Structure formats: C-alpha cells, structure tokens
Automatic annotation (TrEMBL):
SUPFAM superfamilies: CBS-domain pair (SSF54631). It holds the Pfam family CBS. It comes from Algibacter agarivorans. Residues 11-67, 86-139 form the CBS domain. The lineage of its organism: Bacteria, Pseudomonadati, Bacteroidota, Flavobacteriia, Flavobacteriales. This is CBS domain-containing protein. The keyword Cytoplasm does not apply.
Length: 139
C-alpha cells in the first residue's frame, strides 16, 4: 500500500448528478438504475449539496413501499424538494488528497461518500465501497 496514493486513482469519474430543478422521483430512479447510494446536487459543475438514498428513505416512509416494484408513492415525494432533503454543507476533498486522508475523513465524520472537487468543479466522488475495493486489491 502506497501511503501517498491520490484519491483520483480510485474515485468514480462518471458522475451521476441532480440539480435543484429535478424532483425526488428522479432521484429514486437514478439511485435504483445506477445502484448507487449518494448523488451530488450541482449547479452547473459546482456542487451545492449531496443527497443520499438514506435521506430519501427517511422521508418516504420506506415501510409502506410496495415490495414488488420498490417504489414509493409519488405523493410523498411531491411534499419535499431536493433542496429540502439534501445535505447543504458538503465536505469535499480534491483529487490529490491521499486515500489515507479520505479514509480518515470518512471514518471520523461517519460519511459514506465524499465529492472530489478541483478548482471549484466537481470531478468525481469517492465512496466507502471504492475504499474497500482498493484495500482488497492490496492483499
């Protein structure tokens, strides 16, 4: 394991993102279609928030979801906007941040994903899954 390896070597560069004009139904579709748990919310290329699948389920009364199609009644989603549900004060790292530093942030702050931002522009996202896959390859 190289202690100075930058996060850019393991981050996802194919970013699935939302904007404030999107709705929570679209968010659910993206979570399910791409099998992801975190979606950055952007204005242009700038990150303004982060929405997690957990945030979505928290407001959707997940227990009442239809077991067959994993969808939640759209009436619930229409009660909230992405801006109301997303985390607004997003902690970010840059692409040169080391994997070790990212692991420390995720562990200490109990996050599961960090947006990667260079010069104010969202360039990737790194998740605990990315970290675990990296560590597995080391052994």
């Amino acid at each position: 394991m190289r202690p100075q390896t930058p996060v850019s070597t393991i981050m996802s560069k194919n970013i699935i993102a939302l904007t404030l004009s999107d709705d929570l139904e679209r968010a659910e579709v993206l979570f399910n279609r791409h099998k992801i748990k975190h979606i950055p919310v952007v204005s242009g290329e700038v990150i303004i928030g982060m929405l997690s699948y957990t945030d979505l389920m928290r407001i959707s009364f997940a227990e009442s979801a239809d077991e067959e199609n994993d969808s939640v009644d759209s009436v619930v989603y229409n009660m909230f906007t992405i801006e109301q549900v997303m985390v607004k004060n997003v902690v970010t790292v840059n692409s040169e941040t080391t994997i070790k530093e990212v692991a420390q942030i995720l562990a200490e702050r109990e996050f599961h994903a960090l947006p990667v931002v260079d010069d104010g522009v969202l360039v990737g996202i790194v998740t605990t899954t990315d970290l675990l896959n990296y560590f597995i390859k080391q052994f």
